[in-house]
Amino acid sequence: MDTVLTTTFLLLASPPATGAETTGAASGGLVRPVFTKPESRAVKAPEGHTTLRWRYPGAKSPTGLCFELQQAPTAAFRQARTRYLGPDRAVFVSGLGEGDAFFRVRPVVADTAPGPWSRTARVQVRYVSRRLVLVLMGVGALLLLATLAVIFGGHRRSRAAEVEAPGE
């Protein structure tokens, strides 16, 4: 039952920007990345996994530009862990437990301070209720038994008809 999930994405408002975050002065001219997926404030992914995508809005990407994607259980990012560090602008995320997960991304270039964090993407994972899963499995089992009864009943009747009229 661990594979039956519903995932919802919400983009949260970012903290107030300082002058360094908007101009990139404190981060070597790097600008804040922008998530492009999730594209709206609420997106559902029934399998519980998704691809996070972002773009770098700078006019020209610096040489050696990489991105750091962090995940945390709260929007405060006190227990954040890096899920990805590299040049790609999309990451497939899976293996999320039930509840909320928060993601943010920032540009990183060697020998410079990291750039500002993006707006936070919130992923809500809610499992389908166990009761619903058991009801659906019960209905499936009943349909299987009814199908088998029809097949074996028809087979028995056709064999009985062959025995009654063997020479015809």
**Average pLDDT, all residues:** 79
Number of extended strands: 9
Strands of the biggest beta sheet: in what spatial order? 3-1-9-8-5-6
Looking at CATH, the homologous superfamily of the largest domain is Immunoglobulins
CATH architectural name of the largest domain: Sandwich
SSE arrangement, N to C:
EHEEEEEEEEH
How would you classify the quaternary structure?
A: single chain
* Gyration radius, in Å: 27 Å
What's the number of domains?
A: 2
Explain this structure to me?
By secondary structure, the protein is of the alpha+beta class. It folds into two domains: 5-127, Immunoglobulin-like (Sandwich), CATH 2.60.40.10; 129-168. Helices cover 24% and strands 32% of the residues. The protein has two helices and nine strands. It has helices spanning 19-23, 130-164; strands at residues 5-11, 34-37, 43-45, 50-55, 66-72, 81-86, 90-93, 99-108, 121-127. Strands 3-1-9-8-5-6 form a six-stranded antiparallel β-sheet, with no helix packed on it. The chain has a three-stranded antiparallel β-sheet with strand order 2-4-7, with no helix packed on it. Strand 5 (66-72) and strand 6 (81-86) form a beta hairpin. The radius of gyration is 27 Å and the shape is elongated. Mean pLDDT is 79; it is low at 1-26.
